[in-house]
Amino acid sequence: MPGINYFYPEFEVVRNDARCIRCQVCARQCANEVHSYDPERDLMLSDESKCVNCQRCVSLCPTRALKIVKSDCRLRENANWEGDTIREVYKQALSGGVLLSSMGNPKNYPVYWDKILINASQVTNPSIDPLREPMETRVFLGKKPEKLERDENGNLKCELTPQLELSMPVMFSAMSYGSISYNAHESLARASKELGIYYNTGEGGLHEDFYVYGPNTIVQVASGRFGVHRDYMEAGAAVEIKMGQGAKPGIGGHLPGTKVGPDVSRTRMIPEGSDAISPAPHHDIYSIEDLRQLVYSIKEATGHKKPVIVKVAAVHNIAAIASGIARSGADIIAIDGFRGGTGAAPTRIRDSVGIPIELALAAVDQRLRDEGIRGNVSLVVGGSIRSSADVVKAIALGADACYIATAALLALGCHLCRTCQTGNCNWGIATQKPELVKRLNPDLGYKRLVNLMTAWNHEIKELMGGMGINSMALRGNRLMLRGVGLTDAELRILGISHAGE
Amino acid sequence: MSMLEGRIRIPSGCAISAVISREGRRMTGEKIIESMRPMHERSNGLGGGFAGYGIYPEYKDLFALHIFYDGELCRAACEAYLRDHLEIVKGEIIPTRKIPNITDEPLIWRYFVTPLRSVLASRQLDENEFLARIVMHINTHLQGTYVFSSGKNMGVFKAVGFPEDVGAFYRLEEYEAYCWTAHGRYPTNTPGWWGGAHPFALLDRTIVHNGEISSYDANRRYIEMFGYKCTLQTDTEVITYIADFLQRKQGLSLTELASVIAAPFWSTIKRKPTEEERLNLSFLRKVYPSLLITGPFSIILGFEGGLMALNDRLKLRSMVVGEKDDLTFIASEEAAIRAMEPEAENIWSPAGGEPVIVTVKEGCY
What we know:
The complex is a heterodimer.
Chain A: E1 11-15, H1 25-29, E2 35-38, E3 43-46, H2 56-60, E4 66-70, H3 83-95, E5 100-101, E6 116-118, E7 139-141, E8 164-166, E9 170-172, H4 182-195, E10 199-200, E11 217-221, H5 230-235, E12 238-242, E13 254-255, H6 262-268, E14 276-277, H7 288-301, E15 308-313, H8 318-326, E16 332-336, E17 345-346, H9 347-352, H10 357-370, E18 378-382, H11 388-397, E19 401-404, H12 406-411, H13 434-437, H14 442-467, E20 481-483, H15 488-494, E21 497-498
Parallel strand pairs in A: 9-19, 10-11, 11-12, 12-15, 15-16, 16-18, 18-19, 20-21
Antiparallel strand pairs in A: 1-4, 2-3, 5-17, 6-20, 7-8, 13-14
Chain B: E1 12-21, E2 27-28, H1 30-36, E3 48-53, E4 63-69, H2 72-85, E5 86-93, E6 107-115, H3 117-123, H4 127-141, E7 145-149, E8 154-159, H5 163-169, E9 176-177, E10 179-187, E11 200-202, E12 205-211, H6 216-223, H7 235-249, H8 254-261, H9 266-270, H10 275-287, E13 297-303, E14 306-311, E15 320-324, E16 327-331, H11 334-340, E17 345-348, E18 356-359
Antiparallel strand pairs in B: 1-10, 1-16, 2-9, 3-8, 3-10, 4-6, 4-7, 5-6, 11-12, 12-13, 13-14, 14-18, 15-16, 15-17
């Protein structure tokens, strides 16, 4: 059936020939081999079918001769059968395979952060100027005691179960070594140390070079148990049990074998070139009481010196699930919303499973309070937090801190082309090819992460100051939020009033 | 009706003052009423009130409940509820004086009560917790009924009006207390309801408060986990519950309470001279981040045998302290102190977050 598998390319390379000097930077930079030089005709050629619109060539072209545009060669318009939907049918008819995607859900679902507005002080109380008054964003994650105790002399017993101290309420979320590069991990680790926050190994183990950043590292234990051993557990400041991920609730991690080189293989403790597909469930956790056993096993194994985080995807019954986790000995619950990113996930799962983090957070925080167990755990939310304003809204809804990953990758140069699964990341992030990895300079990368977080922290302080709040007593202060254009049900779940009320 | 206290949140500016005799000498209410006159501009006639400690010596072992009723039906329902749980030793209308500036008063009753021993035993509660739950139940569930004072040998008197008129209305010159606190309110709306005036009280703890706390909802949602129900949406109510929770339920001292609600900055804690101090302060901050009260406030927390005055940690509200002989005075303005005692000495402004604790000599109250 000739022609049936042909699609006109999604993007077009527009080259301004008058500007092009044939330097061939584009050809050298494109790992997808879109650009080539024809010496006979002295022409730069493009194979647009390979283009993923990562903007690498555009960014590096010295004469600004290039741009990538969306192709206007389209199938006949149909509001129900959109072009992408039809294309996916063709692809599956050809391959018989599951569609794979990367990064967060790009579909047009409501972004509740954008329908929530923040308050500021006027007249009846003063706003606080963070340039002139102290403004505290420090936060401690971990269980808080229900009842204070005193010794025989009446002094307070000041022992707390292990806590994580954050200079600001943001951490770098789990991204495994394997899904992202050595240089990306180094950037995250060094930035965390400088900022006084934490980054998360993801489920790919911890490269031996990064053990020195252990005090700022959260080590993850996922269903595949990749790279999990004694030294690994002891290296981190906290251990995270990954039960689920917002981008792919209900299934385990995916790392294509093309990204499993010698270093990744050694760190993960798996053979080179093998796909690392984690089991969907943890096979030692089929119920909540099993989770409790794993939590306490990890606590025993690490001498009760490290908080244990349980990370779950935001799914329909998240409030009850979180309530169960809060009673299972976990110190921190991390909830990942359905827009959370991924290095590779089945498209259908990424785009249609799970719920928005805003609603999940509001429901969980309220449920834990209704049951009087909010103090048992701290709540960390991610998927997707895009700016300092999202952070402030999340804290006011009830989160103790936020996890960010996509924003951190953007700081490192990611252009959100959503093809991490190919391992051809031209920006040196989601790749293991040495010639690509070296494009990300960790000396600059870590600095950019520090810049981003420093900027956000300034903004968080400004927003807090405007509200007249100078500490993380902001947490759960929903009176500081108002909804715009939300239904009664949405407002009720978020626990906020509509603007004007 | 939609503007009633509790249905909407009403920010207020205010005046506060207090006088206490460290010797336990009892004073009539006239002095404290005088203190509110020079601060007239700080109120707008929409709320005033007083708390007196040591005013019911003849019933000092009984809880004194002061209750507003919207009507006789409410009273009948509430009294039936009270009789199920408490022995009512005495119930009477609180004597008032008709004055033109105070109108639309509800029925105002007081009861001297003690918990029924049998009920207490079956609930496995101490009498304070039992009483607190009764008050919380009435204020949440009994329509048109509001308990605004519930301690022993003390009482709150409050109304919609200017404080000096409220004092005259309740005939405070006929009461003698070793400690008085007072409040004049400047709400931004018309509350129209007497329960919204201050002081706010639970058991023997009363709060008068000037300010609008910006951490209100964080504080409220935290404290409501422990059985408290904030029905009024006022700052003062939530501060009272926080004080009750931290002191009565968690056993914190007054100083510790102050270092939770007006916690020192981390940078200040770091500079504290002793390791023990640093440890204690950071421990309390880590455990109770949600009970840190931010935004401007000056409060006077009254309790049996003493009081504590406290400013927010940035000192965004004025508050001064003065002394004369066995008396200590606290007020939003020095003028109020001078009105009580022209010869007051040692006038000073406590720093933000620095608690001023004054207690009556043991055995004198």
